[in-house]
Amino acid sequence: MRIPSVASAARARLRHHAILGSFLGLVLAPTLAAALYLFTIADDQYTSTVGFAVRSEDSGSALDFLSGFGGLSGVPASGTASDTDILYQFIQSQELVQRISDQLKLKEIYSKPSFDPVFAFSPENEIEDLVDYWKRMVRISYDSTTGLIELRVHAFEPRDAQIIAQTILDESTRMINELSAIARADATRYAREELDKAVERLREQRVAVTEFRSRTQIVDPSADIQGQMGLLYTLQEQLAAANIDINLLRQTTQPNDPRIAQNERRIAVIEELIQREREKFGMGGGTGGKASDYSTLVGEYERLTVDREFAEKSYLAALANYDAALADAQRKNRYLAAYIRPTLAEKSLYPQRGLLTFLAGGFALLLWSIGLLVYYSVRDRR
After folding, report:
1. Model pLDDT, residue 252
2. Which of 40, 172, 218, 371 is least surrounded by CB atoms within 10 angstroms?
3. What stretches of the chain show up as alpha helix (H) in DSSP?
4. Among candidates 64, 313, 334, 328, which has minimal Cα distance to 191?
């Protein structure tokens, strides 16, 4: 009967010592270095929280109230997503970082730690580097469904974090006010242009009427023509009376009676005056110029009057339209509502040393495990 051989005791080989050494050098050492840096070198960071939302308040007009379509206190405020999206991008923009840096000297605030190459900012870096660092120190939380924006501002001193958060809120408020002003200007621009055109048209028509009166020395041709027509009617009555008188004389006196000749001269004078008056109205067939042609003057004046009245009505309509557009634009108001004012931290919560140490160790362990698996996979294929 064959006796089975007993397996010899396992001995540690060179690869086992190499694996242990790699674990100590690639996992344990980086984890200890990260923990040492975080707990002994990295400075405390304090956080200020601020939350706000863009609101749009559209109050109802008096006409809405009278017609029953408007509410007693206007339309409730509601979030304006487009403005919030603009503000979300603005908070991360270089323009805002530059503005706040000019006011607060951000490079000095973020370079306060004497030696912290990981979390502190180097004052020699440019604005582009500051924008990248800003995105690390100012964390934005944006809920697109509700339009709420919440910021977590980090700094190495509590007061600095609060001041930066307050400055962001102030600059965001100014941005929303500028957007509101632009919206109001856009809403009233067309109405304003129409009003300016109507004012210019009315001015031109009034100047034309004034020039006509200065040129013709007639304030109102319609009133003047009434007087001229009255004179013409009077002359025609006198002519009829003179014809009656001369016919009576011819029937009752001798043909050489001097009164007949006198009445004939009188009739001739009246007829001449009537002819002159008719020529003024363009009815006599004379050769008078246009300056004395009342029909031409009246036609020109009526045209100018119609144009002026049309210009006045257009002006009134444009003015009413502009007032309505301006009132509607004033009723629609955007504003920034802060539901969390900038807070002042009492305790340092960052950097999260325990969590960062765990993540560093876990990441190193993951890389070491992957490398070990690759090594044994290659070894087994040989």
Report:
1. 79
2. 40
3. 14-23, 29-40, 62-67, 81-91, 94-104, 106-110, 127-137, 158-216, 221-252, 258-280, 294-331, 353-381
4. 328
Whether residue 110 contacts residue 121, with contact meaning beta carbons closer than 8 Å, is answered with: yes
Question: Could you give the CA distance from residue 91 to residue 138 in angstroms, rounded to a whole number?
Answer: 9
What is the DSSP track for 44-63?
A: PBEEEEEEEEEEEEEPPPHH
Q: Which residues of the chain have pLDDT under 70?
A: 1-13, 57-81, 219-229, 277-295, 332, 382
* DSSP one-letter string for 263-304: HHHHHHHHHHHHHHHHHHTT-S-----GGG-HHHHHHHHHHH
Helix (H, G, I), strand (E, B) or coil at 36: helix
- Residue 290: the pLDDT is 41
pTM here is: 0.62
**80 and 55 Cβ atoms separated by less than 8 Å:** yes
**Per-residue model confidence (pLDDT) at position 225:** 60
Torsions phi, psi of 155, nearest 5? -160, 170
Q: H or E stretch including 154?
A: strand 148-155
